[in-house]
Amino acid sequence: MKRSAKIGETGELSFVVTKQHQIDFADDQMPAVLCTPWLIWFLEHAAREAMLPLLDPDESTVGVHVDVRHLAATPIGQEVTCTARVINTDGRLITFQLEASDQHERIARGNHKLRVIRCDRFASRVREKANG
């Protein structure tokens, strides 16, 4: 890493909820709203955004823990902003506090841990596992 993450550093990612992001069981009774897996995807990428400037060219990040409460529904067409703030560092393991809000309210809150990895070592382990 070029340098360690510092407590309080943030990453942010905004998106507009589209049909691609909706629950797969929307119908006449259940409105089309943002599904939790997509919300978590964007929250994890907000954390990654905080780390990208700190990584060497041969490094990347992998998520190792997610704990998110999806607090409120967001309909299609609304903008969501996801923020990840560094709250702890332990070498290559970084812990983030996550929050997401739509245009009206906070819709999610939680924690996420990611690990900074060397791409070549990671790829080698994956190849070994794939080859059995």
Q: What percent strand?
A: 35-45%
The structural domain count equals 1
Mean pLDDT: 97
If helices are DSSP runs of H or I spanning 4 or more residues, what is the number of helices?
2
Order of helices and strands: EHEEEEH
Total beta strand runs: 5
What's the name of the CATH homologous superfamily? Hotdog Thioesterase
- Structural category is alpha+beta
Low-confidence stretches: none
Structural commentary:
By secondary structure, this protein is of the alpha+beta class. It has a single domain (10-130), classed as Thiol Ester Dehydrase, Chain A. Helix content is 21%, strand content 40%. The protein has two helices and five strands, in the order E-H-E-E-E-E-H. Strand 4 (93-101) and strand 5 form a beta hairpin. It starts with 9 loop residues before the first strand and ends with a helix. 24% of the residues are buried.
Give a short synopsis of this structure.
With 132 residues, the chain is α+β, with helices and mostly antiparallel strands. 21% of the residues lie in helices and 40% in strands. The chain has a single domain, classed as Hotdog Thioesterase (Thiol Ester Dehydrase, Chain A, Roll), CATH 3.10.129.
Output the keywords.
single chain, 132 residues, alpha+beta, Thiol Ester Dehydrase, Chain A
Helix-strand layout with pairing:
Elements: E1 10-16, H1 36-51, E2 59-70, E3 79-90, E4 93-101, E5 106-118, H2 119-130
Antiparallel strand pairs: 1-3, 2-5, 3-4, 4-5
